[in-house]
Design a protein that fits this description.
This protein is of the alpha/beta class and 346 residues long. The protein is built from eleven helices and eleven strands. A seven-stranded mixed beta sheet has the order 3-2-1-4-5-10-11, sandwiched between helices. It has a four-stranded parallel beta sheet with strand order 7-8-6-9, with helices on both faces. The protein is elongated and about 75 Å long. The structure holds 6-O-phosphono-beta-D-fructofuranose (F6P). 6-O-phosphono-beta-D-fructofuranose binds next to loops.
């Protein structure tokens, strides 16, 4: 599909765009691309504020090229974002549809994660306009796309922070436990753990609660070796929402069993902020343009994805069916690196 002037249109299309759920660096780059591509096709663009709440409350603005000319580098989202429990109700869905109708919207583009796409599907039940999703979440857990907008920046932000934590850990031969975001998936945890040469990665993909005591015992032994005999630091990255009673409980239990202080550092929302890295700006731009191309081609109920470096259309129903799994090669790589380190040091 090529991006061409839509001179044959008898009726000018009105496109609505909103950002929903956890904000992700690159959302602004996606908004920019949607607006520029839409304008090039002679479409009008309306932005709704605060995720689906803006749709329910009819809180919107007109977006022109001028409004987006200097936003590609900004973190957050100029349209604001929110979670919207009201959209889970039929009443909320009907209000959202009413707003789309009042504003004569022909197509709705939602930039967000799988929860946001479920909202989009719910709207499509009551509305005949076109609906297109663009995957934007730091968690990278959306099926049907190799990467989501914001993931690369979040990983780089976390690496930058952990490299600094490593400096102070080295200075004191100290144990740090760093908790990373990802809701219920370990894409951030594994990518960051490997990139920071973490001594241990604990995430959904390699943890079972029955192994809890065994993991603590092994770690305690490894930590004693590293700290007491080799005078090194020891870094563990752990996924949020994983350890029973939380990551602080993990650090406490580890301290107790090893007899060596393990300090928890929760990176938290720092991972969601900041200027997007090149990879996210480019991905967001490609996806925003592809969304308008899809609308031009009369597509609906689709998510824009990137697979093997090509833009693809994925059914929203398929995208939300399963959470995208962390690649086994990444999990294996971490495991093998650990094994190799142990071998070469005995
Ligand atoms: O989905 C993005 C994310 O940052 C997750 O990694 C995290 O679990 C969640 O959002 C936090 O959500 P909230 O902003 O509602 O606290």
């Amino acid at each position: 599909m090529s991006l061409t002037q839509n001179n044959n249109n008898t009726k000018i299309k009105r496109i609505a765009v909103l950002t929903s759920g956890g904000d992700a660096p690159g959302m602004n780059a996606a908004i920019r691309a949607v607006v520029l591509a839409a304008t090039a096709n002679n479409f009008e663009v309306i932005g709704f504020y605060h995720g689906y709440n803006g749709l329910i409350n009819n809180e919107h603005c007109v977006l022109s090229n001028n409004d987006v000319h200097d936003i590609i580098h900004l973190g957050g989202t100029i349209l604001k974002s929110a979670r919207c429990p009201e959209l889970c109700t039929k009443n909320g869905q009907l209000k959202a549809v009413e707003t789309l109708k009042i504003n004569n919207i022909d197509a709705l583009v939602v930039i967000g994660g799988d929860g946001s796409f479920k909202g989009l599907q719910a709207i499509a039940e009551y509305w005949s306009g076109q609906v297109i999703g663009i995957p934007g979440t730091i968690d990278n857990d959306v099926d049907g796309t190799d990467f989501t907008i914001g993931f690369s920046t979040a990983v780089n932000t976390a690496i930058d922070a952990i490299d600094k934590i490593r400096d102070t850990a080295n200075a004191f031969d100290r144990v740090f436990v760093v908790e990373l975001m990802g809701r219920h998936s370990g894409h951030i945890t594994f990518n960051v753990g490997i990139s920071c040469a973490a001594e241990q990665v604990i995430s959904f993909e390699n943890f079972q609660v029955q192994q809890k005591q065994a993991i603590l015992s092994t770690l305690a032994e490894n930590i004693k070796q590293a700290i007491q005999y080799k005078h090194r630091s020891y870094l563990i990255v752990i996924a949020e929402n994983l350890w029973p009673n939380g990551s602080q409980a993990f650090a406490n239990e580890l301290t107790k069993i090893s007899g060596i202080d393990a300090t928890l550092c929760t990176l938290g929302y720092i991972q969601r902020g900041g200027s997007p890295v090149a990879k996210d700006r480019i991905l967001a731009t490609k996806m925003g343009v592809a969304a308008i191309q899809a609308i031009n081609a009369q597509e609906t109920n689709m998510m824009i994805g990137e697979q093997n470096n090509a833009m693809v259309l994925v059914l929203l129903s398929e995208a939300v069916q399963h959470q995208k799994q962390v690649s086994q090669s990444l999990v294996d790589a971490q495991q093998n690196i650990l094994a190799m380190t142990a071998q070469t040091e005995t």
